[in-house]
Amino acid sequence: ATNLVDQTHEAVLERLNSADPDKDGITNMSLHAHQPGDKTLNNYIWIIRRLLATFLRESDYYTLPFQPPCQRSRTRLISALDEGSMDDQEDALHNFLLAVIWGTTWEATADERDCDPTLCFLGLYSLQTTGEFHGPDQTTGPIARICWALRLVMLRQIHILCDGGICTDQLAAFNEIAPFIKEHNINTFSSLQSLQHYASSIVMSTMPLPSIVFLDRVNWTSLYFKGQYFSLEKFQNILRGLEEEILNLWNDQIMLGYNIRVDYGDLVDNLKNQKPGYSFITLFRIPRTLSLRTKIPSLRRSSRIPIKQRSSFSAFLG
Q: If you average pLDDT over residues 218-231, what whole number do you get?
Protein backbone atom coordinates (compact mmCIF):
# COMPACT_ATOMS: atom_id res chain seq x y z
CA ALA A 1 0.00 0.00 0.00
CA THR A 2 2.92 2.37 0.57
CA ASN A 3 3.62 2.24 -3.19
CA LEU A 4 0.22 3.88 -3.77
CA VAL A 5 1.15 7.04 -1.87
CA ASP A 6 2.88 8.58 -4.91
CA GLN A 7 -0.17 7.74 -7.05
CA THR A 8 -2.60 9.54 -4.75
CA HIS A 9 -3.67 13.18 -4.92
CA GLU A 10 -2.30 15.40 -2.18
CA ALA A 11 -5.79 16.46 -1.08
CA VAL A 12 -6.75 12.82 -0.46
CA LEU A 13 -3.54 12.14 1.49
CA GLU A 14 -4.22 15.18 3.66
CA ARG A 15 -7.73 13.96 4.42
CA LEU A 16 -6.44 10.48 5.22
CA ASN A 17 -4.04 12.02 7.73
CA SER A 18 -6.75 14.18 9.37
CA ALA A 19 -8.18 12.29 12.32
CA ASP A 20 -10.83 14.85 13.28
CA PRO A 21 -11.39 17.29 10.38
CA ASP A 22 -14.68 18.57 11.82
CA LYS A 23 -12.85 19.86 14.90
CA ASP A 24 -9.28 20.56 13.78
CA GLY A 25 -9.78 20.99 10.05
CA ILE A 26 -7.79 19.22 7.35
CA THR A 27 -4.10 19.02 8.13
CA ASN A 28 -1.49 20.23 5.67
CA MET A 29 0.73 17.25 6.50
CA SER A 30 -0.25 14.49 4.10
CA LEU A 31 0.02 10.77 4.72
CA HIS A 32 3.48 9.64 3.66
CA ALA A 33 5.43 6.42 3.39
CA HIS A 34 8.56 5.78 5.40
CA GLN A 35 11.82 5.61 3.48
CA PRO A 36 12.94 2.15 2.29
CA GLY A 37 15.64 0.72 4.51
CA ASP A 38 14.63 3.00 7.36
CA LYS A 39 14.29 1.22 10.69
CA THR A 40 11.08 3.16 11.29
CA LEU A 41 9.26 1.06 8.69
CA ASN A 42 10.30 -2.18 10.40
CA ASN A 43 9.12 -0.79 13.74
CA TYR A 44 5.71 -0.13 12.19
CA ILE A 45 5.46 -3.52 10.49
CA TRP A 46 6.25 -5.89 13.35
CA ILE A 47 3.19 -4.97 15.44
CA ILE A 48 0.92 -5.59 12.43
CA ARG A 49 2.52 -9.01 12.06
CA ARG A 50 1.71 -9.72 15.68
CA LEU A 51 -1.84 -8.50 15.21
CA LEU A 52 -2.40 -10.81 12.24
CA ALA A 53 -0.75 -13.73 14.03
CA THR A 54 -3.08 -13.19 16.99
CA PHE A 55 -6.12 -13.15 14.69
CA LEU A 56 -5.13 -16.23 12.70
CA ARG A 57 -3.77 -18.57 15.37
CA GLU A 58 -5.96 -20.78 17.46
CA SER A 59 -5.53 -20.48 21.22
CA ASP A 60 -6.73 -22.53 24.17
CA TYR A 61 -6.34 -19.57 26.53
CA TYR A 62 -8.44 -16.85 24.92
CA THR A 63 -11.03 -16.31 22.19
CA LEU A 64 -11.52 -13.19 20.10
CA PRO A 65 -15.05 -11.87 19.49
CA PHE A 66 -15.22 -12.66 15.77
CA GLN A 67 -18.64 -12.41 14.16
CA PRO A 68 -19.67 -15.07 11.57
CA PRO A 69 -18.53 -12.93 8.59
CA CYS A 70 -15.19 -12.51 10.36
CA GLN A 71 -14.77 -16.24 10.72
CA ARG A 72 -15.50 -16.84 7.02
CA SER A 73 -13.07 -14.14 5.91
CA ARG A 74 -10.48 -15.47 8.34
CA THR A 75 -10.84 -18.96 6.87
CA ARG A 76 -10.42 -17.61 3.32
CA LEU A 77 -7.29 -15.71 4.38
CA ILE A 78 -5.75 -18.81 5.96
CA SER A 79 -6.52 -20.80 2.80
CA ALA A 80 -4.96 -18.11 0.59
CA LEU A 81 -1.83 -17.99 2.73
CA ASP A 82 -1.48 -21.76 2.45
CA GLU A 83 -2.25 -22.32 -1.24
CA GLY A 84 -3.01 -19.04 -3.01
CA SER A 85 -0.84 -16.82 -5.19
CA MET A 86 0.64 -13.55 -4.01
CA ASP A 87 -2.26 -11.58 -5.53
CA ASP A 88 -4.78 -13.86 -3.84
CA GLN A 89 -3.01 -13.41 -0.51
CA GLU A 90 -2.98 -9.61 -0.85
CA ASP A 91 -6.67 -9.51 -1.78
CA ALA A 92 -7.66 -11.87 1.05
CA LEU A 93 -5.61 -9.91 3.57
CA HIS A 94 -7.07 -6.60 2.39
CA ASN A 95 -10.62 -7.94 2.57
CA PHE A 96 -10.00 -9.38 6.03
CA LEU A 97 -8.61 -6.12 7.45
CA LEU A 98 -10.99 -3.73 5.70
CA ALA A 99 -14.36 -5.42 5.38
CA VAL A 100 -14.13 -7.52 8.52
CA ILE A 101 -11.83 -5.89 11.09
CA TRP A 102 -11.43 -2.15 10.48
CA GLY A 103 -14.44 -1.53 8.24
CA THR A 104 -16.96 -3.01 10.65
CA THR A 105 -19.06 -1.24 13.26
CA TRP A 106 -18.27 -2.89 16.58
CA GLU A 107 -20.98 -2.09 19.10
CA ALA A 108 -20.85 -3.30 22.68
CA THR A 109 -23.52 -5.69 23.87
CA ALA A 110 -24.68 -6.86 27.25
CA ASP A 111 -22.61 -10.02 26.87
CA GLU A 112 -19.47 -8.48 25.35
CA ARG A 113 -18.43 -4.99 26.26
CA ASP A 114 -15.09 -5.19 24.44
CA CYS A 115 -16.12 -6.68 21.12
CA ASP A 116 -13.54 -5.05 18.83
CA PRO A 117 -10.80 -7.62 18.00
CA THR A 118 -8.19 -4.88 17.51
CA LEU A 119 -8.78 -3.53 21.02
CA CYS A 120 -8.66 -7.07 22.37
CA PHE A 121 -5.29 -7.56 20.66
CA LEU A 122 -4.04 -4.30 22.14
CA GLY A 123 -4.98 -5.53 25.59
CA LEU A 124 -3.19 -8.86 25.03
CA TYR A 125 -0.16 -7.07 23.62
CA SER A 126 0.03 -4.77 26.65
CA LEU A 127 -0.05 -7.70 29.07
CA GLN A 128 3.37 -8.51 30.50
CA THR A 129 4.64 -11.86 31.78
CA THR A 130 4.32 -10.56 35.34
CA GLY A 131 0.57 -10.11 34.90
CA GLU A 132 0.83 -6.32 34.75
CA PHE A 133 -0.08 -4.11 31.82
CA HIS A 134 2.21 -1.69 30.03
CA GLY A 135 2.02 1.89 31.22
CA PRO A 136 0.53 4.66 29.08
CA ASP A 137 3.97 5.72 27.83
CA GLN A 138 4.46 2.26 26.30
CA THR A 139 1.00 2.16 24.72
CA THR A 140 0.93 5.29 22.58
CA GLY A 141 3.52 3.96 20.13
CA PRO A 142 1.71 0.72 19.23
CA ILE A 143 -1.59 2.58 18.82
CA ALA A 144 0.02 5.07 16.42
CA ARG A 145 1.50 2.22 14.36
CA ILE A 146 -1.84 0.43 14.08
CA CYS A 147 -3.56 3.67 13.03
CA TRP A 148 -0.91 4.19 10.35
CA ALA A 149 -1.53 0.71 8.97
CA LEU A 150 -5.29 1.32 9.08
CA ARG A 151 -4.86 4.45 6.97
CA LEU A 152 -2.81 2.48 4.42
CA VAL A 153 -5.57 -0.13 4.13
CA MET A 154 -8.07 2.66 3.47
CA LEU A 155 -5.69 4.13 0.89
CA ARG A 156 -5.60 0.81 -0.96
CA GLN A 157 -9.39 0.65 -0.86
CA ILE A 158 -9.58 4.11 -2.45
CA HIS A 159 -7.55 2.88 -5.42
CA ILE A 160 -9.61 -0.32 -5.66
CA LEU A 161 -12.82 1.74 -5.86
CA CYS A 162 -11.33 4.00 -8.54
CA ASP A 163 -9.76 1.21 -10.61
CA GLY A 164 -13.00 -0.79 -10.51
CA GLY A 165 -15.05 2.13 -11.79
CA ILE A 166 -17.16 2.27 -8.64
CA CYS A 167 -16.05 5.86 -7.94
CA THR A 168 -15.23 8.51 -10.50
CA ASP A 169 -12.24 9.99 -8.67
CA GLN A 170 -10.11 9.52 -5.56
CA LEU A 171 -11.95 12.15 -3.55
CA ALA A 172 -15.27 10.42 -4.16
CA ALA A 173 -13.66 7.13 -3.13
CA PHE A 174 -12.37 8.74 0.05
CA ASN A 175 -15.88 9.86 0.94
CA GLU A 176 -16.96 6.20 0.75
CA ILE A 177 -14.43 5.08 3.36
CA ALA A 178 -14.39 8.31 5.42
CA PRO A 179 -16.82 7.04 8.12
CA PHE A 180 -14.27 4.39 9.11
CA ILE A 181 -11.30 6.75 9.45
CA LYS A 182 -12.77 9.66 11.41
CA GLU A 183 -12.94 10.21 15.13
CA HIS A 184 -16.23 10.31 17.04
CA ASN A 185 -17.76 7.60 14.86
CA ILE A 186 -18.46 4.01 15.84
CA ASN A 187 -15.37 2.43 14.32
CA THR A 188 -12.03 0.93 15.30
CA PHE A 189 -10.10 4.05 14.30
CA SER A 190 -12.10 6.26 16.64
CA SER A 191 -11.66 3.80 19.52
CA LEU A 192 -7.90 3.71 18.97
CA GLN A 193 -7.68 7.50 18.80
CA SER A 194 -9.68 7.84 22.03
CA LEU A 195 -7.25 5.51 23.79
CA GLN A 196 -4.36 7.45 22.28
CA HIS A 197 -5.67 10.77 23.62
CA TYR A 198 -6.33 9.23 27.03
CA ALA A 199 -2.88 7.64 27.28
CA SER A 200 -1.15 10.82 26.09
CA SER A 201 -3.05 12.86 28.66
CA ILE A 202 -1.90 10.55 31.45
CA VAL A 203 1.71 10.66 30.26
CA MET A 204 1.73 14.47 30.04
CA SER A 205 0.11 14.98 33.45
CA THR A 206 1.98 12.31 35.43
CA MET A 207 5.45 12.87 36.81
CA PRO A 208 7.49 9.69 36.30
CA LEU A 209 9.66 8.18 38.99
CA PRO A 210 13.32 9.20 38.74
CA SER A 211 15.83 6.89 37.08
CA ILE A 212 18.73 8.40 39.05
CA VAL A 213 18.91 8.74 42.83
CA PHE A 214 22.05 10.29 44.31
CA LEU A 215 23.28 8.78 47.58
CA ASP A 216 25.98 11.37 48.19
CA ARG A 217 24.25 14.76 48.29
CA VAL A 218 27.47 16.61 49.19
CA ASN A 219 30.12 15.55 46.67
CA TRP A 220 27.73 13.75 44.26
CA THR A 221 30.07 10.79 43.81
CA SER A 222 27.64 7.86 44.13
CA LEU A 223 24.17 7.11 42.79
CA TYR A 224 21.61 4.46 41.87
CA PHE A 225 20.62 4.26 38.20
CA LYS A 226 17.48 2.14 37.79
CA GLY A 227 18.45 0.25 40.92
CA GLN A 228 22.08 -0.32 39.86
CA TYR A 229 24.77 1.19 42.10
CA PHE A 230 27.39 3.43 40.45
CA SER A 231 30.17 5.50 41.94
CA LEU A 232 32.76 7.94 40.64
CA GLU A 233 35.47 5.57 41.82
CA LYS A 234 34.10 2.83 39.56
CA PHE A 235 34.15 5.13 36.55
CA GLN A 236 37.72 6.15 37.36
CA ASN A 237 38.75 2.49 37.52
CA ILE A 238 37.11 1.86 34.15
CA LEU A 239 38.90 4.79 32.52
CA ARG A 240 42.18 3.78 34.12
CA GLY A 241 41.84 0.25 32.77
CA LEU A 242 41.01 1.53 29.27
CA GLU A 243 44.04 3.81 29.34
CA GLU A 244 46.31 0.92 30.28
CA GLU A 245 44.91 -1.28 27.50
CA ILE A 246 45.37 1.47 24.91
CA LEU A 247 48.95 2.14 26.02
CA ASN A 248 49.81 -1.55 25.90
CA LEU A 249 48.26 -1.85 22.44
CA TRP A 250 50.21 1.13 21.15
CA ASN A 251 53.56 0.32 22.75
CA ASP A 252 53.63 -3.45 22.25
CA GLN A 253 51.58 -4.23 19.14
CA ILE A 254 51.90 -1.05 17.08
CA MET A 255 55.30 0.37 18.06
CA LEU A 256 56.70 -3.13 18.77
CA GLY A 257 58.49 -1.86 21.84
CA TYR A 258 60.49 0.87 20.04
CA ASN A 259 60.64 4.19 21.86
CA ILE A 260 60.70 6.64 18.95
CA ARG A 261 58.97 9.87 18.14
CA VAL A 262 58.05 11.96 15.11
CA ASP A 263 58.58 15.68 14.80
CA TYR A 264 55.02 16.95 14.62
CA GLY A 265 56.13 20.24 13.11
CA ASP A 266 56.90 18.52 9.79
CA LEU A 267 53.51 16.81 9.46
CA VAL A 268 51.23 18.03 6.67
CA ASP A 269 47.56 17.18 6.20
CA ASN A 270 45.14 18.03 3.40
CA LEU A 271 41.81 18.55 5.17
CA LYS A 272 39.92 18.80 1.86
CA ASN A 273 40.95 15.34 0.68
CA GLN A 274 37.88 13.11 1.11
CA LYS A 275 39.06 10.13 -0.96
CA PRO A 276 38.58 6.73 0.69
CA GLY A 277 41.78 5.46 2.25
CA TYR A 278 43.46 8.85 2.39
CA SER A 279 45.94 9.28 5.21
CA PHE A 280 48.22 12.18 6.06
CA ILE A 281 51.02 9.65 6.55
CA THR A 282 51.10 8.81 2.82
CA LEU A 283 50.92 12.44 1.67
CA PHE A 284 53.72 13.10 -0.81
CA ARG A 285 54.67 16.40 0.84
CA ILE A 286 55.71 14.67 4.07
CA PRO A 287 59.48 14.07 4.08
CA ARG A 288 60.46 10.44 3.74
CA THR A 289 62.61 10.85 6.84
CA LEU A 290 59.39 10.99 8.87
CA SER A 291 58.59 7.37 8.04
CA LEU A 292 58.95 5.29 11.14
CA ARG A 293 60.21 2.44 9.01
CA THR A 294 63.29 4.47 8.00
CA LYS A 295 64.00 5.24 11.64
CA ILE A 296 64.10 1.55 12.62
CA PRO A 297 66.67 -0.44 10.63
CA SER A 298 65.36 -3.78 11.84
CA LEU A 299 61.91 -2.98 10.41
CA ARG A 300 63.23 -2.40 6.88
CA ARG A 301 63.29 -6.16 6.40
CA SER A 302 59.55 -6.80 6.69
CA SER A 303 60.08 -10.56 6.79
CA ARG A 304 61.16 -10.23 10.40
CA ILE A 305 57.71 -8.96 11.37
CA PRO A 306 55.02 -11.57 12.08
CA ILE A 307 52.19 -11.64 9.54
CA LYS A 308 49.51 -10.15 11.81
CA GLN A 309 51.83 -7.47 13.15
CA ARG A 310 53.14 -6.70 9.66
CA SER A 311 49.69 -6.06 8.19
CA SER A 312 48.55 -3.86 11.05
CA PHE A 313 51.88 -2.02 11.15
CA SER A 314 51.82 -1.39 7.39
CA ALA A 315 48.24 -0.19 7.51
CA PHE A 316 49.17 2.25 10.24
CA LEU A 317 52.35 3.60 8.61
CA GLY A 318 51.09 3.62 5.05
A: 89
